[in-house]
Specification:
two-stranded antiparallel ribbon; 4% strand; 2 domains; MetI-like fold
Length: 284
């Protein structure tokens, strides 16, 4: 009994150390968001300070007070851009990727695996490899600095992810259920829509959430292929590094606000996420 208690105590202490190690940077950023630059830059750092919401007020109002005057920022527009671009990119990827994943999982055709691997290889290549030709092409066809252009290029991030994750879920579903459904005269498309997709819904939700997070965190594509009018919050935060100095408190507040949408979405879809990630984990 004593050994068991000691083992549990050691495990608990180790878990606390791991949790503290990973959560402390987030906790420190949260504290910084309620501090002025003077409090953040003082040496040595201190946990005691007078909290202020001026950083959040500056982001929402669109004006930052600096040593050289008032600096306009467009953080709320950038936040809206992130939500719009990520949602549209994931919706398009789901519309294209789910039927494609079903086809790769259920049908065997020539070069099928090669095509699937080629789509996955888009995730292997660094974005900088395709940025220059993409910029030239987008300027020629009028997609540079547009929402449509960024949603299109975001498919390099979201589509391979959804395709390969959802394909695995479809492969874990027994095809016998669909065969029995098609014996009644239903088409393969209807069996996919009525049988396969509902059964794989938790996995599709999990893949969609992961794709949304990847799209939300995208930086380099929007930096090069768009201006401040369409750039997401990851790029918009660069505006807080000015010639008069770096606004650390405002950057910390922008990080906190940018995490909230994905955190709320993850909490809302937590049930589907757990079911989706565990789908097929136990096989008979």
């Amino acid at each position: 009994m004593n050994k068991g208690l000691l083992r549990r105590a050691i495990r608990g202490v180790l878990l606390l150390v791991v949790v503290f190690f990973f959560l402390f940077p987030m906790f420190w950023v949260l504290l910084m968001s309620f501090q002025t630059n003077q409090d953040i830059l003082r040496t040595p750092p201190s946990l005691t300070f007078t909290p202020t919401i001026s950083n959040y007020v500056a982001l929402i109002s669109g004006e930052i007070q600096t040593s050289v005057g008032t600096l306009p920022v467009y953080y709320m527009k950038n936040l809206w851009n992130s939500a719009f671009l990520s949602a549209c990119a994931v919706a398009l990827s789901l519309a294209l990727g789910v039927p494609a994943a079903y086809a790769f999982a259920r049908f065997k055709f020539r070069l099928g695996e090669d095509i699937a691997f080629t789509l996955l290889s888009f995730r292997f290549a660094p974005p900088i490899l395709v940025l220059l030709p993409l910029q030239l092409y987008f300027q020629d066809i009028g997609l540079y600095d547009t929402y449509l252009g960024l949603v299109w290029v975001y498919q390099l991030i979201t589509l391979p992810l959804i395709l390969w994750i959802v394909r695995g879920y479809f492969e874990d579903i027994s095809p016998d259920i669909e065969h029995a459904y098609r014996l009644d005269g239903h088409s393969w498309f209807k069996s996919m829509w009525k049988i396969a997709i509902p059964l794989a819904r938790p996995g599709i939700a999990a893949a969609g959430l992961l794709a949304f997070i990847f799209a939300w965190n995208s930086f380099i594509f929007a930096l090069v292929l768009g201006s401040s009018d369409v750039q997401p919050v990851t790029v918009g935060s660069l505006a807080f590094m000015t010639a008069s100095g770096i606004q650390y408190g405002t950057i910390a507040a922008s990080l906190v606000l940018s995490v909230i949408p994905t955190l709320v979405l993850a909490l809302y879809t937590q049930r589907y996420l757990v079911e989706g990630l565990s789908l097929g984990a136990v096989k008979g």
